[in-house]
Amino acid sequence: MPASPAPSSTAARVRAPRRDATANREAILAAAAAALNEDIDTTLESIAARAGLTRRAIYGHFSTRDDLLVDVFTRGAARLAALLEPVSHPDARVEIALFGATLWAEVEHIRVSAALAVRGPHRELVGTALDPARGRLRRTVERGMAAGQIRTDIDRETVTRLIENAAVSVLDEATRAKLSPVAGHRLVMLAGLSAAGLGWREAGALVEATPELAFEAVHSRQRTQAPPSERTR
């Protein structure tokens, strides 16, 4: 049987731009996420410069600035939902705290843009991307209620929303007060546990007594779950 012909130079030229286009798109998204955290009104020119590209190159991937923001926010939300999926602990209270701590470990370095994602005009799209994580939290709340570990004076859906909103409020407070990563880590857990019905002393004691909730433990676990290119972040 005759050997297959070698790929033509034309085919090679066709394949290479595809790789370049993918790399450029990823560079644009990474640059946009970083630029938005520094200035929520950042321009496409600034994003392009950070990505090492031209404004025209951005329009080759995104029709408008708004389209770019939607992609940045929804991709971030989907990644967060994936990171929360394996979070688990026999004690529902600890699991709730771990949800908050995992969220904080992912977004504390982009807290401004993260707050805009969940509060801004694209919150419905972001919320849809976070639905799997919301479902996980809902099941945890149900388990904690059944075990008598968290409040049962209000319904499951309300408790779930209160815990979720507590985490979002920490993003706002962390930005306003310029909280350190460690302070934000602790606050997001205490806020979630408070929404779940724990008193502040009880919540603090639980956090202190649980090694899995330590700042370094959560961040170490986050690094091992991140893609190889992000593990040095």
Overview of the molecule:
It is a single chain. The protein is mainly α and 233 residues long. The protein has two domains: 10-63, Arc Repressor Mutant, subunit A (Orthogonal Bundle); 71-230, Orthogonal Bundle (Tetracycline Repressor, domain 2), CATH 1.10.357. It has twelve helices and no strands. Helix 1 (9-38) packs across helix 4 (65-84). The radius of gyration is 21 Å and the shape is elongated. The protein starts with 8 loop residues before the first helix and ends in an 8-residue tail after the last helix. The model is unreliable at 7-17 and 228-233 (pLDDT under 50).
CATH architecture assignment of the largest domain: Orthogonal Bundle
Rounded to an integer in angstroms, the radius of gyration calculated over CA atoms is: 21 Å
Largest sheet: none
β-strand percent reads under 5%
- The overall strand count is 0
Specify the CATH class of the largest domain. Answer: Mainly Alpha
What's the CATH topology label of the largest domain?
Tetracycline Repressor, domain 2
User: What is the molecular shape?
Assistant: elongated
User: Share of helix among residues?
Assistant: over 70%
- What string gives the helices and strands in order? HHHHHHHHHHHH
Low-confidence stretches: 7-17, 228-233
C-alpha termini separation:
52 Å
What key phrases describe this protein's structure?
2 domains, 0% strand, Tetracycline Repressor, domain 2, mainly alpha, Arc Repressor Mutant, subunit A, 233 residues
Write the layout of secondary structure elements.
Blueprint: H1 9-38, H2 44-51, H3 55-59, H4 65-84, H5 92-107, H6 111-119, H7 123-129, H8 131-146, H9 156-177, H10 181-195, H11 200-209, H12 215-225
Helix pairs in contact: 1-2, 1-4, 1-6, 4-7, 4-8, 5-8, 5-10, 5-12, 6-7, 6-9, 8-9, 9-10, 10-11
